[in-house]
Specification:
Elements (H helix, E strand, L loop, with lengths): L3 H11 L5 E2 L1 H8 L3 H13 L3 E4 L3 E4 L13 H7 L3 E4 L10 E4 L4 H4 L7 E5 L3 H9 L3 E4 L7 H10 L3 E3 L4 H20 L3 H4 L1 E2 L6 E2 L4 H11 L4 E4 L5 E5 L13 H4 L1 E2 L10 H11 L3 E5 L5 E6 H13 L7 H6 L3 E2 L11 E4 L13 H20 L3 E10 L8 E11 L3 E10 L2 E12 L5
Parallel strand pairs: 5-6, 6-7, 7-8, 10-11
Antiparallel strand pairs: 1-3, 2-3, 4-8, 9-15, 11-12, 12-13, 14-15, 16-17, 17-19, 18-21, 19-20, 20-21
Helix pairs in contact: 1-3, 2-3, 6-7, 12-13
Length: 441
Amino acid sequence: MATKHDQILSYIESLPVGERISVRSIAKNLKVSEGTAYRAIKDAENVGLVSTIQRVGTIRIERKLKKNIERLTFAEVVKIIEGEVLGGDNGLDKDLNKFVIGAMTEDAMERYITKGSLMIVGNRVEVQKLALELGAAVLITGGFKTSPEISKLADELSLPVLSTTYDTFTVATLINRALSDQLIKKDIMLVSDIYTPLEKTNYLTGQETISEYRKLAETSGHSRFPVVNQHLRLLGIITAKDVVGKNDTQTLDKAMTKDPMAVKKAMSVASVSHQMIWDGLEVMPVVEDDLTLVGIVSRRDVMKAMQLVQRQPQIADTLSDQISGQVYAVEDTKVKDGYEYRFTVTPQMVNGVGTISFGVLSELITTATQRVMVSQQRRNVLIEQVNLHYFRLIQLESELSIRPRILEIGRRSAKLDIEVYLENSIVAKAIVICQVMERPN
């Protein structure tokens, strides 16, 4: 039988796109508590079923299919290039490691062809045969076909021979983008990378007593444990404050905090960090879609992971990396508070009329915020809100001066004032509110 949580998600998915929903309406229509409704709506937002828009509310949206290419196979390449398989169907599930463009003599290209590579070539049958014999798949551009001999050899070796109407340059660009996207996705740290699995996790059942909680707390040195039923479905979480003044014989299902916030293995560590900081949580259960407990993730683990992610270089550049990579600090500046960053507007950073893209300007504000917090406070941050005002158009090749100033900082949040200057005249200003990440112990 589906859980209430699953029933709510199914109900939300059945609603027409554009329908407004609320915690109260879900709770009333499905006869569940508002807490259960709230958690289900948040989960629906995580999986792309709904979106919360300021001053509008939460609405049902078209679910976007996430292209999750964890490994780039030749079957994925066929989709990317809108191609046709001419032979070697049994090898479509093999991984693509690199591609080679066959624009040289056979002798010269032989040393570049390796097993698992993809030879991109035109209607040169001899090159196609050479590639297959050396363990590489073949992609024929320009809409050309191949000979029956090559198709037969591809079937024998289980190496795909593909054909596409695209030219060589376009195909190489498409595949290179797919490889880059794959590397970026690998760089994104997920809960599955850091959580403590069930076999290494301490947990209790709802029918165990407070006395048994206290024994486990004493032997393990921890004070927070997930509470499950006999099928390992998450019921709640029990902490030291839940058992204060309670009788030792009372069962945990009567004392625990019910319907706790939980995470799934596919969620990013950044989103979990945001949640834990905001709600002051020390431990979050990790569950499957049916709420089966698979482990826990601790605040300490999340903070360590976030610190590591922000220190290590990425293998592939995102748009954010490309923008922030062009921002540099000005040493020995006379600006108030002593922090100034410079950025020159390049052709890739402008909109259709030749002025800086609003998204690029927002990214500059974000970069300045993160860098000044690391430089001045030795703290990493997650941007919560940016209130940006754009006073004057910023033209191509303008050299901008970005001057951040910390207005206030607390244990969990900070507020900064960021001013953007062009030739000593202010052209943009932002107030930034961010979450301050704790230093892991």
